């Protein structure tokens, strides 16, 4: 169930408070405190390699494309 679906159902249950409380308890989506991270440039989720060190939060493709601009050097 998506977030918009649960909001629609809550609107419909507005006049039935007991059912609405029970619905919210079991069916509304939970907020994520951890899990899949997103690349700050392209929005790709952490499928491949995510570079989170130094607070970059970039996928490997974006890191390779922008490494020189960020000040990283290739030694080999």
Description:
There is one protein chain. The protein is mostly helical and 76 residues long. The protein has two domains: 1-31; 35-76, Irregular (30s Ribosomal Protein S14, Chain N), CATH 4.10.830. The protein has three helices and two strands. The protein has helices at residues 3-12, 17-27, 60-70; strands spanning 50-51, 58-59. Strands 1-2 form a two-stranded antiparallel sheet. The chain is rod-shaped. 4% of the residues are buried. The model has no long low-confidence stretch (mean pLDDT 84).
Q: Notable features of this structure?
A:
76 residues, mainly alpha, 30s Ribosomal Protein S14, Chain N, two-stranded antiparallel ribbon, 2 strands, 42% helix, rod-shaped
Per-chain topology:
Elements: H1 3-12, H2 17-27, E1 50-51, E2 58-59, H3 60-70
Antiparallel strand pairs: 1-2
CATH architecture assignment name of the largest domain: Irregular
Helix % is: 40-55%
SSE topology string:
HHEEH
DSSP summary, beta strand count: 2
User: What general outline do the C-alpha atoms trace?
Assistant: rod-shaped
Q: Into how many domains do the coordinates divide? A: 2
Describe the largest sheet. 2 strands, antiparallel
Question: What are the low-pLDDT stretches, counting only 5+ consecutive residues below 50?
Answer: none
The whole-angstrom Rg is 21 Å
What's the pLDDT, averaged over the residues? 84
Order of neighbouring strands in the sheet with most strands? 1-2
The CATH C-level name of the largest domain is Few Secondary Structures
Give the CATH superfamily of the largest domain: Ribosomal Protein S14/S29
Give the distance, in angstroms, between the N- and C-terminal Cα atoms: 49 Å
| Percentage of residues in strands | 5-15%
SSE class: mainly alpha
CATH topology of the largest domain: 30s Ribosomal Protein S14, Chain N
